Amino acid sequence: MWCIPCPKCSYERQPTDTAPSNECPRCGIVYAKYRPPMDRTPQRKSNTGLRFALVLLGLTLVGALALVDAPVATKSRDREKNTTPEFTAGVARVNLSYSMKNPGRVKFRDSFMSHAARGLAYCTQMNAQNSFGAYTGFKPAIALSDNSIIRADQLDSERFMALWNSHCSNPVHN
């Protein structure tokens, strides 16, 4: 009698075995239900996706560098728009806000634009939060069109008042 060996233990049935014909007499598995163990060795993955991503990243960087070095063609109307008192005031408010601990919680009052020696100056009173979240009270501040900031809490009062008088004494009238 010819027999297929057990798929698990490779035992070949003998004519003297008393186990049912669908079971292995040595290990006891049912031949029809047996599933060989899965191969646990990691299969090598193709790295074409990684190669594609790296090539795409390289092309993006090259394109970005080309844009940085490219001359920017601006119309004279755009340059004029960026020097208006309204635009300068907006930039100044952002610069002053980001000089504080919590930029999103800065309050402004009594703000005006003034002609200064180095362009326009944004003169204002600002109230900002400290590290504990409490507002510290309105204090004067100046933001110049060259993005420099002068705050009263950073200088002695005599020096700040001299700068205030020199930068904020010639208001822009619309």
Shape verdict: rod-shaped
The radius of gyration over CA amounts to: 39 Å
Placed side by side, the strands forming the largest sheet appear as 1-2-3-4
Q: Oligomeric status of the shown chains?
A: single chain
Helix fraction bin = 25-40%
Query: What class, by secondary structure content?
Result: alpha+beta
What key attributes describe this structure?
174 residues, alpha+beta, four-stranded antiparallel beta sheet
Question: What does this protein look like?
Answer:
The chain has 174 residues and is of the alpha+beta class. Among the domains are: 1-35, no CATH class; 85-167, no CATH class. The chain is built from 4 helices and 4 strands; from the N terminus they run H-H-H-E-E-E-E-H. Strands 1-2-3-4 form a 4-stranded antiparallel sheet, with helices on both faces. Strand 1 and strand 2 (119-127) form a beta hairpin. The longest helix is centred in the middle third of the chain and has 22 residues, at 48-69. The radius of gyration is 39 Å and the shape is rod-shaped.
